[in-house]
Amino acid sequence: MSYMSQEGYDKLVAELVRLESVERPKASAAIAEARDKGDLSENSEYDAAKEAQAHLEDKINRLKVTIAEAKIVDTSRLSADAVQILSKVEMTNLTTKTKMTYTIVSENEANLREGKISIKTPIAQGLLNKKVGDEVEIQIPRGTIKLRIDKISI
Fold this sequence. Notes:
Layout: E1 2-4, H1 6-35, H2 44-69, E2 70-72, E3 88-93, E4 99-105, E5 116-118, H3 122-127, E6 135-140, E7 143-153
Parallel strand pairs: 1-2, 4-5
Antiparallel strand pairs: 3-4, 3-7, 6-7
Helix pairs in contact: 1-2
């Protein structure tokens, strides 16, 4: 089961529709085109097209499972008292004095460029259930960072 926002769920559904309605027909056409080139036993284009189709079908199936297991979080029931999934957390790195802001989301919605980190990352795990003013030390691959939570919002 994966908790996610309505926006994240809608993106997954749109991606599934695109894969099924655009990419799947393209893969079938590529196979048909390669098949028309003759002997299939030594046709590398045919083999490559079949392999690409298999990867596409695997991706479609994984997406279907993710969508089926998704639980959409009702943001109106969330509280900004403590850090949880879909919390936007403003914090200060106490070592470098730099400020940073992350929104904690499901793995499928994570996008560092948008400031969205997966709930499974060490930083998100270290922040969960903490409150404004709390200082936390979090083990990350490069060592330990010390953060102070300045603000929590939804």
